[in-house]
Write a structure and sequence with these properties.
- With 153 residues, this protein is mostly helical.
- The protein is globular and about 35 Å long.
- The N and C termini lie far apart (61 Å).
Length: 153
């Protein structure tokens, strides 16, 4: 995968994430994402030992939509091929967060940060995953409190 492919993936993520997308614009972004995922998957099949393809597929899904289980599997395969890569660990953390495993995302992001302690984006992502985990825990506590309160009356 060349650097222009990396830029394309980031452009697709940006297009998907625009807050003022119309339904048609969102549908077009999803269509392009699915086409890119199919192309990346074909590249992976053609060159299965290249860690970058697995990581790009996982990064695109984790930051947009798609098969999160497959993305997580691909992310782990990228780490098997390039085990000491903080960017690939960051991708796995994003996959775990996309799948709702915030504690797993936090653990993985801490490993990424340990690999590259001066990378500020890794720290910001860790803080975001910690907030998501806290928000989820707070939501669960509030939900169970409502059920308990309701049962008392």
């Amino acid at each position: 995968m060349c650097s222009s492919d990396l830029k394309e993936v980031d452009a697709l993520i940006a297009a998907y994430s625009l807050p003022d997308n119309t339904p048609e614009q969102r549908s077009e972004a999803v269509r392009k994402i699915n086409a890119a995922l199919a192309r990346i998957d074909a590249e992976i099949q053609a060159v299965p030992d290249d860690a970058n393809g697995y990581n790009e597929y996982a990064w695109l899904v984790a930051n947009t939509e798609g098969d999160v289980a497959k993305a997580t599997r691909y992310s782990k395969l990228s780490l098997i091929r390039s085990f000491d890569n903080s960017s690939y660990l960051d991708t796995l953390a994003h996959c775990r967060a996309a799948g709702g495993d915030y504690q797993g995302a936090i653990r993985t992001q801490r490993l990424a940060k340990r690999q590259d302690p001066h990378q500020r984006m890794l720290q910001r992502n860790l803080e975001r995953f910690e907030r998501l985990a806290k928000d989820r825990k707070s939501t669960r506590l509030n939900s169970s409190h409502l059920v308990i309160s309701y049962a008392v009356f």
